[in-house]
Amino acid sequence: MTAATSFPKDQIKVLLLENIHPIAREMFSSEGFQVETLAGALGEAQLKEKIRDVHVLGIRSKTQVTAEVLKEAKRLLTLGCFCIGTNQVDLNFAKARGIPVFNAPFGNTRSVAEMVIAEIIMLSRQLAQRSGEMHTNVWKKISNGCFEVRGKTLGIIGYGHIGSQVSTLAEALGMRVMFFDVLSKLPLGNAKSCNTLAELLRESDFITLHVPATPLTHKMIGDAELRIMKKGSYLINASRGTVVDIAALSAHLKSQHLAGAAIDVFPEEPEVNTDQFQTDLQKLPNVILTPHIGGATEEAQANIGTEVPASLIRFVNTGCTAGTVNFPSVDVAPGKDTHRILNVHRNVPGVLREINRIVSELGVNIQAQTLATDGDIGYLVLDTDKALSREVKTAIENLETSIKTRMLY
To answer: Fewest C-beta atoms under 10 Å: which of 4, 47, 54, 235?
Structure first.
């Protein structure tokens, strides 16, 4: 391969926000990219100014990449969310601009799962209360209302990477595991799939949520659902703050219908550590409150710091979109003795016919051609002979249906 047609690597600008792990900077720098890191998130006005010359953007959960921000991102090739959630990005608008978005679906799985298991035991033994009392000189040795978790039923809502990992760990503790997911999922171990959410709510001693923030999951646990839960049961949420109605949860804790809760995520969260925070759940007994730290371990951040850059670098270097959350998936290896043309276009009939006509009329030999589509766009990876690749790229770029066209090698 040669770099004769590719954009020079030393001119590719990477912007990493929100204290992304240093290993990410090292990976981008080792590719020869220019890398800038900032400790915090940027507001919309600041980000619009900063993003204009950026080719690769890396963010965590605080930075909001809106349509207005993306309109200013004239050179942006790709965007990485160094976390699981991607609701902070306007994914559809990014797709319409030909920008694939990647995330880290695996990096913090173990860290979140371990915290959930720890909270199950802490709630069952009222450890947070006893610890708080000891710090205020109170010695209160009791067993009333404290239980082993062995033999208890754990209900998992959302049986994805984290939910299934929690399932495995819970079974190792001797718990009975049930789960509910809107998609058909293969149970691990002896876990049982529930047909309805209500079935899971009725039968579980502990319920843990592992779902994304979508219109379907918005306040999916509200007053009606909390009423269905067993008296004396517990709720754990380390997924997204919008999936639980906090006011309703507070009411059911105060009435002692629920015995406790552990909440790591909230509908509104402070931008920085120095901001004040308030919630209706404060000062309630047997409620564990943590500041969105489910994935906040050194191992998780290092994993995410390598997982996301690997996807972004592979896309920049080869055009591979495997693992993207908003784009047709194309998994391609580097070509050999070819030039690679990457074309994002509107998914309407006749586009491939027009592209093949261009190639035929120019007399160019195609070494490989891969096309993937979704309802809105098509993504074509075309490896051609080197001699006339520039002419092919220009002609494809000028098609009315083309959104973005790039050439590699």
So the answer is: 4
